[in-house]
User: What shape does this take?
Amino acid sequence: MCSLGFAKSLGFALIPLAICCIVANVLLFFPNLMLDFVREGHLSMYVWSFMGIGGGGIVIFITAFTFLSMGKCADSCGTESCAMCGSVLASLIGLAGSGYCFIVSALAMVEGPLCLKETWITPFQNDGGKYLFDHKSWSQCNQPAHIVEWNVTLLSILLGLSLIEFLICLVQFISGLVSAVCRPCCYKQQYSLSA
Assistant: This one.
């Protein structure tokens, strides 16, 4: 059961990360905390991909709860290897969800926000993300006010959180595989401690 405790601790670590991803993604829908822009559809297409709600949030919740319930699975199956197979599969699902969140957030960051210049456009779409280092160009966006800062901040949070989620799932994936291969070593440690 040595690897099950480790998986459980990783499951607890994933829960606040998933909650923060969901909150950051929801805030992207409400620039300056106003409802007008979402009602009128003046949001980037990437915001509508639900990268933080779906990929970094719900999918990671599924992964976290799988990690947390592995002890019950091992008790009902009678073997730890069955539970570790479940953790490897859950890790793969978590890797996919966090990877999706990271990739879509990166694409959204490179494209830049949809804003009102003379018409509603994405003014930084073709500059390959150079606008991120040219703060003077951010004033091109008249509405919503401070939309570039809003998007850059929230997308940076999503990038960071999804990267941490990805690393946690990768660690559990490797741990699950190693545990399945080296299970006898784990049992020898338990036997020597109880003797």
